[in-house]
From TrEMBL:
It is found in: Membrane. This is DMT family transporter. It comes from Sphingobacterium suaedae. The chain crosses the membrane at residues 26-42, 54-74, 80-102, 111-127, 133-153, 165-187, 193-210, 222-241, 247-264. Residues 1-124, 136-263 form the EamA domain. Keywords: Membrane, Transmembrane, Transmembrane helix. It holds the Pfam family EamA. It is a multi-pass membrane protein. SUPFAM superfamilies: Multidrug resistance efflux transporter EmrE.
Amino acid sequence: MLVAGLLFSCMNVCVKWVSHLPTLEVVFFRSSFSLLITYLLLKKKRIPLLGNNKLLLTIRGATGCLGLIGSFYTLQNIPLATAVTLNYLSPFFTALFGIFIARQPLAPKQFIYFGLAIVGVILLKGIDHNITLVDLLIGLLAAIFAGLAYNIIAKLKTSEHPLVIIFYFPLVTLPFVGAYSIFHWIQPAGIDWLFLLLVGIFTQGAQYYMTLAYQRANLSKVASLNYMGVIYAILFGYIFFEESLSIYSFLGIGIILTAVLLNIQVKKNV
């Protein structure tokens, strides 16, 4: 999950650098790359493409598609600090939905730990009060759909190979974003092509490691580790976008790490 978080953070930076391109066009490039690479890997390993539970796999693809579009939209249209803050609310919804979908209850104290983590995220990155209500709602919906997608991944852990689950993501996404992109196409130029390629590479690696994590471990514990990606975002924000760290940022890092460690200590049988 730590590797997945690092790769997702690299992807965030690349998405931010192509903010002048339509969101769904960026999603189109990301999905095309993922579909091709996953298809080749499945063929090489001689794994059936369409899996066993086609309904759940399709729902996973649809929820992942909506979550990805919302996430890319916030990264492109609002300050990086606020976008990352909203995106990293998804572990909260993952654990919350996990109570009902994956049948993984939370201990009462785990709600406190997740609350601490959210406070840490807010302190770490801050909230931009200048964003519109629409931007805020899109960011929250992206986190909600991501939480649903992660729960479905957990439900599929006994019946599907990780690559099959990843394959359904672009398989469901491409027809929708492709149809939109045909009528709203903006031709990428120069270094745009490199950033779009890197979005695909980073996301493919992140999706694989994230899928393994959600299949092999308790949802609430994996979701808490997702918050570590905020620390990656802080470092990249400083390096690439000259974002300085305040005392609140350092305090947020400490709170997030504390919440993550406390959550991991909760017994597996809770």
